Amino acid sequence: MNNIFMIINDEPVNAQDARISAWDRAIYFGDGVYEVIQAYNGKLWAFDAHFARFKRSLHEIGIDNIDINQIKEKVLAGFEKANQPNALLYFHITRGIQPRLHTPADELKPQFLMFVKPAPDNSSIAKNGIKAISYPDIRWKRCDIKSLNLLANVMACNEAKIKNCDDAVFVSDNIVIEGTSSTFFAVIDSKLITRPLNHQVLPGITRGAILAIAKRLNIEFFEGETPLLQAYEAQELFLCGTGSEIRAIVELDGRQIGNGTPGKITRKITDYFINYTRTGGSFEELIKG
């Protein structure tokens, strides 16, 4: 934890000594929302897109009594103080502090927490891929909100660990929805497929980048559903997310996907993404096309 820089409300703290109130509503209800942003070479990538999603999540759960610009300045200042050019930055807002009661009291003061830590090395996973399991989607019906309520995600990850796998994909009515912390893509008949955005899935920032990259690489793509049985027979599968970047699924529920290694289209997209983000390419320019 020596490499973690943390702020609680307005105060930098040592991560090992950090303290929050026992009455914070996040503890009892997961009553808050969060964001995670990757930094490359000293720059927070897709910061505006991440912050817009954070602002929307706050609004959707009714935490509107904050100065959002002040929070933005606090996040940027905290990242600068952390002095970690290649990092993951996490921050959240909870509704506030009060003795346990389902109904929030009036005029609660939202609580802020952020930390910055070194970015993970994803090179081995990018090269070799991961093994995953399918898991029933038992989450709530507003997965488009980046909520602190992640118990179902934890349960799915734990089940994957028990089965000596790396992650899980949620399945509802035999349709693959998304990963535990990532967007799901399939390559079928050489076409890239991902689910359309709705309340079942998080509007992934990396998802948008992948679709823009596919367009630049002339890879045909569309939004649609991938049944689990069809996923087993897909040419390629992969997950994408902020911290994990792009991870090919080379085995799903014990079934080999493709030839058991990251496929051609996944590799092309991964190579483009890695080169683009490491050489200063901006998310905004990428999305513009």
Describe this structure in words.
There is one protein chain. The protein is built from nine helices and 16 strands. It folds into two domains: 114 residues, D-amino Acid Aminotransferase, Chain A, domain 1; 166 residues, D-amino Acid Aminotransferase, subunit A, domain 2 (D-amino Acid Aminotransferase, Chain A, domain 2), CATH 3.20.10. The model has no long low-confidence stretch (mean pLDDT 97). Strand 1 and strand 2 form a beta hairpin. It is globular and about 55 Å long. Strands 7, 8, 9, 10, 11, 12, 13, 14, 15 and 16 form a ten-stranded mixed beta sheet that branches. A six-stranded antiparallel beta sheet has the order 2-1-6-5-3-4. The longest helix has 15 residues. Helices cover 31% and strands 29% of the residues. The N and C termini lie far apart (40 Å). It has 289 residues and is of the alpha+beta class.
- pLDDT averaged residue by residue: 97
Number of domains: 2
Just give the CATH class of the largest domain.
Alpha Beta
The largest β sheet comes out as: 10 strands, mixed
> Structural class of the secondary structure composition?
alpha+beta
User: How big is the Rg?
Assistant: 19 Å
CATH topology of the largest domain: D-amino Acid Aminotransferase, Chain A, domain 2
How would you name the oligomeric state of the polypeptide chains in this document?
Answer: single chain
Strand content: 25-35%
Tell me the total number of β-strands.
16
Which residues form runs of ≥5 with pLDDT under 50? none
State the shape: globular
What separation lies between the terminal Cα atoms?
40 Å
